[in-house]
Write a structure and sequence with these properties.
It is a single chain. By secondary structure, the protein is mainly beta. Helices cover 5% and strands 28% of the residues. It has three helices and 17 strands. It has helices at residues 31-34, 117-120, 258-263, and strands at 16-20, 40-45, 52-55, 73-79, 86-89, 102-106, 128-132, 162-166, 173-176, 188-192, 199-202, 213-216, 222-226, 239-242, 248-252, 264-265, 275-277. A ten-stranded mixed beta sheet has the order 1-2-4-6-7-8-10-13-15-17, with no helix packed on it. It is globular. It starts with 15 loop residues before the first strand and ends with a strand.
């Protein structure tokens, strides 16, 4: 069900779009419609043929109009889309997700990344990020490979409160370490069944980090780690995580805890191998 509308401005008052069980949909939002979408929530479920969500098209350099694409998107939920290969098709350097507050992704079997570097830089209001059952997902932020992007600053998520990732068996990294200083409002983090996870935070090219780097989460109250085989979890072994507000620590499926606890800087714990109340 791709939307085809001829009237100028017809979609400007549209607040919500839900697409469910439409078997022949491949691109529900063609590029020519994106300029009209304002204050929009998008929900797409059970579309067996959908390959991309937003067709961005080619943009003209210096076009201020193009830079407003998707700037009013407030919520995006994508579930059970087995053929989805990318959320954003085309150049993303003129796209802004400055209003996006909630991103929920579930059962996207072919998705290998979620954000380009430029999109990751335009998320000042993102409050919750939920990712589950994305079997081919390797990175949340795609490494620069095809589309060359000039990124003047590191990605930032200053409003992020909830980060929940589960059943993503090929996920290697979650976020670059340059993002961590912006996570001052993170309250809950859950990572489960990520068998291939190498590190939560990774250092990319050009990251100049001290020998002993401390990642600070001043408001993190709950940390849940289930069935993760890598015990140098937050980053390289010289990394440490400072969690002064932690109230609940859930750990399940770990045979060795030494390296993990060496990285955690928290108040004294009552130990069990499953649940840690303070």
């Amino acid at each position: 069900m791709a939307v085809h509308v001829q009237q100028n401005g017809f979609l400007q008052r549209l607040e919500s779009v839900e697409v469910d069980d439409c078997g022949d949909v491949r691109t529900p939002f063609p590029a020519k419609l994106l300029r009209d979408l304002k204050n929009l929530s998008v929900y797409i479920y059970n579309c067996k043929s959908l390959e991309e969500v937003f067709e961005l098209g080619e943009s003209d350099e210096g076009s201020s109009e193009e830079k407003e694409l998707l700037s009013s998107l407030t919520e995006l939920q994508l579930q059970v889309l087995p053929e989805l290969k990318c959320i954003w098709k085309g150049p993303t350097r003129h796209v802004s997700l400055q209003s996006l507050a909630h991103l929920y992704l579930n059962s996207l079997d072919k998705l290998t990344f979620i954000l380009t570097p430029s999109l990751a830089q335009s998320l000042p209001k993102l409050e919750s990020l939920h990712i589950s059952k994305c079997g081919e997902l390797k990175n949340i932020i795609r490494e620069e490979n095809g589309e060359r992007e000039i990124i003047p600053e590191s990605p930032r998520f200053p409003k992020l409160k909830t980060l929940d990732i589960s059943d993503c068996g090929k996920l290697e990294y979650v976020l670059p370490v340059s993002v961590s200083p912006s996570l001052q409002n993170l309250e809950q983090m859950t990572i489960s069944h990520a068998d291939n996870l190498k590190q939560m935070f990774y250092s990319g090219e050009g990251d100049a980090l001290p020998t002993d780097f401390i990642i600070k989460f001043p408001r993190l109250r709950k940390l849940s780690l289930c069935s993760i085989s890598n015990y140098s979890f937050f980053g390289p072994k010289n990394f440490a995580a400072q969690l002064p507000s932690l109230q609940i620590l859930e750990i399940n499926g770990h045979k060795e805890l030494g390296n993990l606890f060496a990285q955690l800087q928290v108040r004294p714990l009552y130990f069990s191998n499953n649940f840690f109340p303070f």
